[in-house]
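Researcher: Please translate sequence to structure tokens.
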Amino acid sequence: MIYLGAGQLPRPRITSTDAEGNFQITELDALAYSLSAAAPTYVMAPREPNSPTPFYRIGENVTINLIKGGVITGTVTSADGEPLVQAKSAAWSLLVVSPRCWS
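Model: Translation complete:
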């Protein structure tokens, strides 16, 4: 799935890729847009921490790189060890600081 967003859009425009990974989103106003993609077991390639979000304009040809993502599994239980149904879980990525930064 390809997600296209702009400040003036009430919700993102969504489309799918074809068999070659190509996509096209039509009938756009002359604005700057952000793009993201999602596919099962893939995630967006990380950007540099301080780099700005890229924006694209109509007519540009964009390549979105996804990388193979990982999976974390587990079980959520109560203090008594009973499984909790519909418990929410989340994962956050952490910035890893090289030990050299501390010397």
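Researcher: Any highlights?
Model: The radius of gyration is 19 Å.
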